[in-house]
Amino acid sequence: ATPTALMAGTGRGAQLGILIKGPEVLENTRRVDTVVLDKTGTVTTGRMALLDVVAAPGEDREQVLRLAGALEDASEHPIARAIATGAAEQVGTLPRVEDFTNVEGLGVQGVVDGHAVLVGRTRLLAEWSQPLGADLERAQAAAEAEGRTAVAVGWDGAARGVLVVADAVKDTSAEAVAQLRGLGLTPVLLTGDNATVARSVATTVGIDEVIAEVLPADKVDVVKRLQGEGRVVAMVGDGVNDAAALAQADLGLAMGTGTDVAIEASDLTLVRGDLRAAADAIRLSRRTLGTIK
Ligand code: ADP
Ligand code: MG
């Protein structure tokens, strides 16, 4: 396409709520056949709510909430915001945290009221030899079967509870996936969350291909692997944990509602955080490039 046509396409993108880094970006869009979609904050709103608190046998529900809430108060993760907010509502002022550490894609750890507390995936607790036990495992399975995320809580060497959080699928996501399919693209859901939750969200929006339980650092390898299979990959994401994958993708699309790091790593920004704009972007580039044979 001529520079003039590409510039016009870029201007049209801005009208559609799509910010395009440079005119050449539209050229990369043409051959895309696969669209990898991050789950949390991209397909879902990322605004999570705390729905349930399950204490292990003999444990105090309020103490589970207090210690987990205090720890999550130090984290920016959407799950952490939900837990800290829910805990403050139910138990009041939260204690202070010392030695806080964020364990990327797994959870958080720190010292609260003299207890060494872990909050996150069961894998994080397993690393510290804190298996859930039958009762918490049952609560976890029940939550995940409903598409909710179960967050494990442990301290001083034992698992103590499970917190159930969920966020809503954006009401535009299913239509966006249908539009992407209509353009001949294969959607793939990519998430650090567990396979049951991922599968449930995928079914809701009409995605067949699901890659779950991927650590933030490994998301880029998933994109590389798909490219190695000869696929031309667009990636849509919002988080710090998506940045490397967005940069690796043949076309990176950031949610305008997402983090600056994701936006900087991307070729396109979907200003309104509406996934349907991803389909608009592909359509726009095909039309722009199609005008000049
Ligand atoms: P996604 O890929 O869906 O954007 P993340 O990579 O940010 O998700 O997180 C993957 C998983 O790690 C979450 O689903 C959650 O189970 C766990 N996790 C990460 N950070 C936290 C936290 N601060 N508190 C609890 N769980 C967490
Ligand atoms: Mg995300």
UniProtKB/TrEMBL annotation:
Subcellular location: Cell membrane
Family named by the database record: Belongs to the cation transport ATPase (P-type) (TC 3.A.3) family. Type IB subfamily.
Name recorded for this polypeptide: Cation-transporting P-type ATPase B
Annotated organism of origin: Geodermatophilus saharensis
Highest classification ranks of the organism: Bacteria, Bacillati, Actinomycetota, Actinomycetes, Geodermatophilales
